[in-house]
Amino acid sequence: MLALVHTTDQKSRNLILIGFMGTGKTTIGKRVASSLGFRFVDTDARITKAAGKPITKIFEEDGEEAFRALETKILQACAEQSDQVISTGGGIVTQPKNREILARAGFVIWLKASPETIYERIRHNRSRPLLKTTDPQATIRDLLAERSDLYDASKNLAVTTDGLTLEETCFGVTESARVALGMI
Ligand code: S3P
After folding, report:
1. CA–centroid distance, residue 21 to ligand 1 (Å)
2. Is residue 5 part of a domain?
3. pTM exceeds 0.90, yes or no
4. Cα–Cα distance between 60 and 17 in angstroms, integer?
5. Residue having the nearest C-alpha atom to atom 8 of ligand 1
6. Helices assigned H by DSSP within 40-132
7. 41-86: pLDDT as tens digits
8. How many structural domains is the chain composed of?
9. Atom of ligand 1 nearest to the CA of 127
10. How far is the CA of 167 from the centre of ligand 1 (A)?
């Protein structure tokens, strides 16, 4: 789906990308940031830097709860700046505090993809601790079912990326953000 959306809410001038693992938040976020002339920020990269170790290690050594606490701290710090595209981890919407922060942090786009598309995109990547299960396809379906309402409640606009090229998605996201953030 391609949509151009206008919002009159007063929020920080940021574009925030939410969505499940493997929906292209980082790839799309970098390109869109460059088109908008915004800084690109990735909460997972900030978490890795702050912890001094990769996300798999944080989960293994400190547990998911510690990861989530760090994620909230980083999101809060990002939300205090503006003129950024913020790519978030797929589980950001699971924490009520994060949903509150997102509501004030800027224009929120939910990048959607089907479980099949997601599986194809992530199957060769082993950096996601939550998908190291005996049946990653079932895990994707279950987690997506659990989280869909949360993504939906947190978003200002949803963009379904199945069937769109990267260029089409980036165009829709960039132009929607320009309108929503009052840049045109
Ligand atoms: C997670 C998604 C990951 C990362 C962590 C947990 C999740 O980010 O934050 O592995 O709970 O869905 P990506 O969505 O960038 O893969």
Report:
1. 6
2. no
3. yes
4. 26
5. 89
6. 43-51, 55-62, 64-79, 96-105, 115-122
7. 999 999 999 999 999 999 999 999 999 999 999 999 999 999 999 9
8. 1
9. 10
10. 24
**21 Cβ inside 6 Å of ligand 1:** yes
**7 in a domain, yes or no?**
no
Mean pLDDT of 116-122: 94
**Amino acid present at 168:** E
Q: How far is the CA of 131 from the centre of ligand 1 (A)?
A: 9
**Residue 92 CA, ligand 1 centroid: distance in Å:** 8
End-to-end CA distance of the chain: 21
Looking at the DSSP bridge assignments, the partners of residue 86 are: 16, 41
Kindly report the CATH number assigned to the domain that includes residue 129: 3.40.50.300
Residue 4 counted as domain residue: no
Measure the CA dihedral 127/71/117/106, to 10°: -150
The whole-angstrom separation of Cα 178 and Cα 160 is 19
What is the token pair recorded at 102? 């997102």
- pLDDT tens column, 4-40: 655 545 578 999 999 999 999 999 999 999 999 999 9
